[in-house]
Write a structure and sequence with these properties.
The complex is a heterodimer of chains A (183) and B (569).
Chain A: H1 3-17, H2 19-29, H3 44-58, H4 62-79, H5 83-88, H6 93-107, E1 118-125, E2 128-134, H7 141-154, E3 157-166, E4 172-181
Antiparallel strand pairs in A: 1-2, 2-4, 3-4
Chain B: H1 12-18, E1 23-26, E2 31-34, H2 38-41, H3 51-54, E3 55-59, H4 66-71, E4 77-81, E5 88-96, E6 101-108, H5 115-118, H6 132-221, H7 227-252, E7 261-263, H8 265-280, E8 284-290, E9 296-299, H9 301-317, E10 323-333, E11 342-343, E12 354-355, E13 358-366, H10 373-378, H11 396-406, E14 410-415, E15 421-430, E16 450-454, H12 458-470, E17 474-478, H13 481-490, E18 496-500, H14 508-518, E19 523-528, H15 534-537, E20 545-549, H16 554-568
Parallel strand pairs in B: 8-10, 16-17, 16-18, 18-19, 19-20
Antiparallel strand pairs in B: 1-2, 1-6, 3-4, 4-5, 5-6, 7-9, 9-15, 10-13, 11-12, 13-15, 14-15
Classes of the chains: A alpha+beta (183), B alpha+beta (569).
C-alpha cells in the first residue's frame, strides 16, 4: 500500500491515543522511526503489521481498529490535501459513492501501483442503495463500515448499514444502505 | 467513421455529453446554443447574447470577428468568462456550415486542485475522455509530494540541529580533553626531568656537604689571616654557590624539602624589592605596589623569593631598551572556596586548621617584547628558553611553576608580541591566629648524649660523625637502616636519631617509626636535600623531629640538635 495509508494509521493512533501510543505501536510493528512518504509504495505487510500492533498495544479487536480506521480515513483524506478532490467527487452521499470508482481510476495516474477496490451501486432509490465492495484483500469489511460511517458524518446524514457477505463467482461484500439527511 | 465505412455527425446530445461547457455562435458572433453545464454554472449567459458580452478571448490574440476565429480553428483557445474571475476555458473552435456556425468545444482549464472548490466544479465536469480530469489527480499528487517534502525538510532541519548541537558538545569536550592532555604532558615532562634533576641534586648535595663541611672544619683549625684559611673559605664559598644551583634544581622538580611558614607576602615582596632594584637598571621604571593588610600565605620564604626573582629578572630581560615593570601584590576572591585547601602548621600541632578562601595575588607586568603563542605555550617547559646560549638555563619559569604548585597556588600568563607580558601568581591565603616566633638556633655543646647516625653516604657520615664527636656527643654510626634498628633493639638508650631520608632498603622516616617504638622519646633529625616522601617534603613532621636541608654547616647541625634535645627536657 502507499505511504498515504500508513500515514493515516499513524495519524489515527496519534490523534486518538497519543504520541506515546504511536511510538509503542511503531516499535512493536518493527517500523523505523522516519516519516512515511505518501506516494511511495510500501509492502502491504507494513500496514497489516501496524494494524496488528495497534490491536495489541491498544487492546482492541481488529474489527474495531479497522472500523475506526475507515472513519478516520474519510476525515484524514479530506484534511490531508485531498479535500478538493473529495469535494469534486460529489456533494451528496450517493453521487460521491458512485464516483469512487472513477476517482480511484484517475488516482492510479499518480499511484501507478495502486490496487484500489471497486465500489458499485445498485438498487438506488431516494434514500437507499446497495453498495457492492470488491477487493483482492481479505477481511476489510469493517473498514468499509467505518468508511460509510465517516461519509455519513461528512454529508451530515443518518445511516443504517446491513452487511452481507456474497459468495459465488464474484465473492464480495454487500452493504444495504438506508440514509436520510439530519434535519 | 462507422465500422461500415460510412460517417456520421455527432448529435447535439452526444456533443453535450462530451463537452458540457460547449457553446455555439453565429457569423455575427451571437450565441446560438449552450452546453448543459452553463445553465447551472453561469445562468446569466443566454442564447441570443453577444459573444463578447460574456466571454473574453485571451488567446489567440486579435480574435475580434468570425472570419478570424474560423481561420484560427486549429489553435488553442483560452477564454475568460465574465463574472467568473480566475475561471478559464480551454479548447478549440469548429467551423460548421461554411463558417455560418462556429462551435467551441473544450472545458475548464485547471491549474490548481483548489480551483475545483473555488469554481464549484466536480469530476462530472471532466468527462472520461477529457485528460484534464487526470490533471486534477496529478495536481493533487504534486500537493501531496510538496507536503511530504516540507515534513521531511522539517525533520531534516531538526536532525541537523541535533547533530549541530551534539557536534558543539563534542568540540567542547575535545577542547577540554586537549587541555587535560596538554596538562598531563606538561606534568609528565616536569616529573621526568624532575626525577633526573632530583637524583643529580641528591648526589651533589652529599658531595657539597662533604666539601663545605670539611672546609668549615679546616677553617676552624686555621688562624685568621692565614692564606690557607682564605683558600679554604673560598672553597666553602664555591660550595655555597653550587648549593644554590642544586636548590634551584630541586625546587624546579618540586622535590626540594621546603620549610613552609606563615609569611607576610607584602613584607617578603618589599624585602626582595630591595635586592632586585639594583639589578633592574635605570632605563626601566620599576614600581612595586603592595596593598596593606593582605594577610599571610603558607610558604617557604625562599620559595617566594625565588618566584619573584625569576619573574622580575625575566621581565627585565624582555625590556632591553627599557620600559615599565610593575609588581602588584593584592588579594582576590577564590573562585571556588569549597575546594580551598586546608593547611596545618606541622611544628605546632595544636594550631587551628586554616582554610584558604582568598588568593593572595602577585602580578608582574612588563611592557617588553611579549611572546608569540608558540613561546607562550612552552614557557613553563623545563630547559625551554628564548635567551641566548649561556644566558638562560631554561629552568627559571619551570622553577616558578613548580614552586607555585608546591604552594598550592596557580600561575597564569597573558602576553602578545610587542604588547608585553603579565604573569599572575595566585597563592592561597593563610588565615592564622597568630604569627610564629622564629627561634634562631644557637650552637651548643653536648652533655654526652648518645646519637645514632644513619647515613649511607660515607663521606657525609664521617663528616657528621666528626662534627658531633667534636661537640661532645657519643656517636654510633651505620650506613644501613636495618642495622640501625638492630642496634636500637639491642641497646635502646639513644637520645637522638640523626638520619638521611633516602637510603637503599628503607627510607629514613620508615626506619624512624620503628626506632621510635623501640626507644620512646627519642628525638629525630632528618637530613636530606631531596626526598620523595611527601610528609617530609612538606615539612609535616612530629614535634620531636626536625629537618635539616643538605648541605648544611656543622654549626647549624649542632645548634638544631642542641635545641631539639633541650626542648625534650
Amino acid at each position: 500500500m502507499y505511504g498515504l495509508v500508513n500515514k493515516a494509521v499513524e495519524g489515527l493512533v496519534r490523534s486518538k491515543f497519543g504520541d506515546d501510543a504511536w511510538e509503542k505501536v511503531r516499535v512493536k510493528a518493527g517500523v523505523p522511526d522516519e516519516p512515511f512518504i505518501s506516494m511511495e509504495n510500501y509492502d502491504d505487510a507494513v500496514t497489516y503489521d501496524l494494524v496488528g500492533a495497534a490491536c495489541s498495544v491498544l487492546n482492541l479487536s481488529p474489527e474495531i481498529v479497522l472500523e475506526e480506521f475507515g472513519k478516520y480515513w474519510v476525515l484524514y483524506t479530506g484534511e490531508a490535501g485531498y479535500g478538493a478532490l473529495m469535494q469534486g467527487a460529489g456533494d451528496t452521499l450517493p453521487v460521491f459513492v458512485k464516483n469512487l470508482d472513477a476517482m480511484h481510476t484517475r488516482v492510479k495516474l499518480s499511484y501507478p501501483n495502486l490496487q484500489p477496490p471497486s465500489f458499485r451501486v445498485t438498487n438506488e432509490s431516494a434514500n437507499a442503495f446497495t453498495l457492492h465492495y470488491h477487493t483482492h484483500r481479505a477481511g476489510l469489511a469493517p473498514f468499509v463500515v467505518g468508511l460509510l460511517k465517516g461519509l455519513a458524518s461528512r454529508f451530515n446524514v443518518n445511516m443504517e448499514i446491513a452487511y452481507t457477505r456474497v459468495e459465488g463467482e464474484a465473492p464480495h461484500d454487500s452493504f444495504v444502505i438506508r440514509w436520510e439527511p439530519i434535519s | 467513421m462507422n465500422g461500415d465505412g460510412t460517417s456520421r455527425s455527432l448529435s447535439g446530445a452526444e456533443l453535450s455529453t462530451l463537452f458540457p461547457f460547449s457553446f455555439e455562435i453565429s457569423r455575427s458572433l451571437k450565441i446560438t446554443a449552450l452546453g448543459p453545464r452553463w445553465k447551472s454554472f453561469a445562468p446569466a449567459i443566454a442564447v441570443g447574447d453577444d459573444l463578447f458580452k460574456h466571454f473574453a478571448i485571451e488567446r489567440p490574440l486579435s480574435c475580434v470577428d468570425a472570419v478570424t476565429i474560423c481561420a484560427l480553428r486549429e489553435e488553442i483557445f483560452l477564454l475568460h468568462v465574465q463574472g467568473k474571475p480566475g475561471f478559464t476555458l480551454r479548447g478549440q473552435v469548429l467551423s460548421l456550415d461554411g463558417g455560418d456556425r462556429i462551435l467551441f468545444v473544450g472545458g475548464p482549464w485547471i491549474i490548481h486542485v483548489d480551483d475545483l472548490v473555488v469554481h464549484a466544479l466536480g469530476f462530472d465536469d471532466f468527462p472520461p475522455h477529457d485528460p484534464r480530469g487526470d490533471l486534477l489527480v496529478l495536481l493533487q499528487a504534486r500537493e501531496t509530494t510538496l507536503g511530504d517534502l516540507k515534513l521531511l525538510a522539517s525533520r531534516l532541519r531538526e536532525t541537523a540541529k541535533r547533530l549541530d548541537d551534539r557536534n558543539k558538545q563534542l568540540e567542547e569536550q575535545i577542547v577540554v580533553r586537549d587541555n587535560l592532555e596538554a596538562q598531563l604532558r606538561q606534568s609528565q615532562k616536569v616529573e621526568a626531568v624532575g626525577r633526573l634533576a632530583g637524583g643529580v641534586a641528591h648526589d651533589f648535595n652529599n658531595i657539597l656537604m662533604a666539601i663545605g663541611g670539611y672546609a668549615s672544619l679546616a677553617s676552624t683549625r686555621l688562624a685568621e689571616g692565614d692564606q690557607v684559611r682564605h683558600w679554604v673559605d673560598q672553597i666553602r664559598a664555591a660550595a655555597d654557590r653550587a648549593t644554590g644551583l642544586t636548590q634551584q634544581l630541586l625546587a624546579f622538580s618540586r622535590q626540594k624539602v621546603i620549610q613552609p611558614a606563615a609569611i607576610d607576602p607584602a613584607l617578603e615582596v618589599q624585602t626582595i624589592e630591595r635586592i632586585l632594584r639594583p639589578l633592574i637598571g635605570e632605563n626601566i621604571h620599576f614600581i612595586v605596589t603592595v596593598n596593606a593588610q593582605l594577610g599571610m600565605v603558607w610558604m617557604d620564604p625562599s620559595s617566594l623569593h625565588q618566584i619573584m626573582m625569576n619573574l622580575v629578572i625575566n621581565a627585565r630581560d624582555a625590556m632591553p631598551m627599557g620600559g615599565d615593570l610593575r609588581v602588584i601584590v593584592s588579594e582576590a576572591p577564590r573562585e571556588n572556596a569549597l575546594e580551598a585547601i586546608s593547611i596545618t602548621e606541622p611544628t605546632q600541632p595544636d594550631r587551628e586548621a586554616a582554610t584558604a578562601t582568598n588568593w593572595i595575588t602577585i602580578e608582574v607586568i612588563d611592557s617588553g617584547t611579549g611572546m608569540d603563542e608558540r613561546t607562550k605555550a612552552n614557557i613553563f617547559d623545563p630547559f625551554f628558553t628564548t635567551k641566548d646560549i649561556g644566558k638562560g638555563s631554561g629552568l627559571g619559569l619551570s622553577t616558578v611553576y613548580g614552586l607555585v604548585q608546591q604552594g598550592g597556588g596557580e600561575i597564569e600568563v597573558e602576553s602578545a608580541l610587542g604588547k608585553g607580558s603579565r604573569f599572575l601568581v595566585k597563592l592561597p591565603k593563610f588565615v592564622a591566629p597568630s604569627a610564629k616566633k622564629v627561634v634562631v638556633p644557637v650552637a651548643a655543646q653536648s652533655d654526652g648524649e648518645r646519637v645514632l647516625l644513619v647515613e649511607d653516604e660515607e663521606m657525609v657520615r664521617k663528616l657528621v660523625e666528626q662534627v658531633l664527636t667534636r661537640a661532645g656527643y657519643v656517636v654510633v654510626s651505620t650506613a644501613s637502616p636495618r642495622e640501625a634498628i638492630n642496634i636500637v633493639a639491642s641497646s635502646p638508650r639513644f637520645d637522638l636519631l640523626l638520619s638521611d631520608v633516602v637510603m637503599s632498603g628503607m627510607t629514613g622516616p620508615d626506619m624512624a617509626r620503628q626506632i621510635e617504638k623501640l626507644s620512646p622519646g627519642i628525638c629525630t633529625i632528618f637530613m636530606s636535600g631531596y626526598t620523595e616522601d611527601p610528609s617530609v617534603r612538606t615539612g609535616r613532621i612530629l614535634p620531636t623531629q626536625r629537618y635539616l636541608t643538605k648541605p648544611f654547616q656543622p654549626d647549624t647541625l649542632i645548634a638544631v640538635a642542641g635545641s631539639l634535645l633541650a626542648s625534650r627536657k
